[in-house]
Amino acid sequence: MNPIFNNALVALIAALVPLAAIGWGGVDGWSSQETAILSSLRLSQLEPAPPDPSNRYEGVPAAEALGKRFFFDKRFSSNGEVSCASCHDPEQQFQDGRPVGRGVGTGARRTMPVAGLGHSPFLFWDGRKDSAWSQALGPLEDAAEHGGNRLAYAHAVQANYRRDYEAVFGPLPNLASLPRDAGPLGDDRQRAAWKAMDERSREAVSRVFANMGKAIAAYEKTLQHSESRLDRYLEAVTRRDAAAYGTLNAQEKNGLRIFIGKGQCVTCHNGPLLSDQHFHNTGVPQRNPAKPDLGRRQAITKVIADEFNCLGRFSDAKQDDCGELRFIAQDDHAMEAAFKTPSLRNVAQRAPYMHAGQKATLLEVVEHYRNAPAPAAGHSELKPVAMTDGEVRDLVAFLGTLTGAVVERRK
């Protein structure tokens, strides 16, 4: 062989080795279409959460600081032992690791994480609240969670936070002539005391209560995800940085390929938060078949009737700002037994799974989606997915790459 030609061939082969390493279809074997999907999942592509027009105090540093103190204060509960952080534990990705939440009593659904909640128009598994601040109020009066009442909370704010509260929200009402405990959702005695109060006093106390929620929401919206191994890999693919392709191993990459391909996971778990923020019936078994949980279908009536919704008198929004609520579909049968798509960020650290902890492991979750069992209520959107046992394991391995710290946004 001609030595000049031979040397040129050697040089050509050497130049092609990096291309062979990443695959002819694109970076690390990804096609251009797949690369576009992968790029859309990067945390760096997450836009700031849109401002909530119903809460004019979000983004106010003093409100955020006050809300953080409220979030960790156990005095805002009927037994003095439960705070928001009791279920939304910072040491556990702001959730609690239990099948269902546990406060002064035991709830019916799994505790949802709060990082990134500002990107969703509806909160809770069923979307019965339409803002972060109205969501924060729900547990405070729930008999199984904080178990308290709004007049007791107003007295607690006055006794412990008066200066800081008034610096943000203005003067507290005079509570001297009012009972210690009263509220529209309390026990018989508390409801009677609430009914006996004049309308002006009820509204003043309810506004203090609403402002507590707005402060807590202001704090919660500072909580954000930090990058995971997946994000580092996706950035490498987007930049064609071959030195960082080893961020994921071969099994995890195959799991990612299944996630955006034949597994169809990305259909609902999409975008930087890996959630479409919508509600779906996926045939998840009922926790209590005798009392089926109909999820979103029942919650639509609740969010429309909620006195703390976007259109309510305690909202800071104008009517035109409340499009999600104004145009909500009120008779959508597809929402029967439908639940919110949770973010998959940090999912490997959030066992058990589903809306009431029905699945103990990620392997069980993936098996559920592979098999697509018939639903106990409503109509499931799932169809069986032809995955091998090895592919199931690869997909589970991939889900372990989504872990990153939850941190407070610093200004």
TrEMBL record:
GO terms for molecular function: cytochrome-c peroxidase activity; electron transfer activity; heme binding; metal ion binding. Binds 2 heme groups per subunit. It holds the Pfam family CCP_MauG. Its main location: periplasm. Heme c 2 binds at residues 265, 268-269. Binds 2 heme groups. Residues 250-403 form the Cytochrome c domain. Its cofactor is heme. Heme c 1 binds at residues 84, 87-88. Keywords: Heme, Iron, Metal-binding, Oxidoreductase, Periplasm, Peroxidase, Signal. It is found in: Periplasm. GO terms for cellular component: periplasmic space. It comes from the Bacteria. This is Cytochrome-c peroxidase.
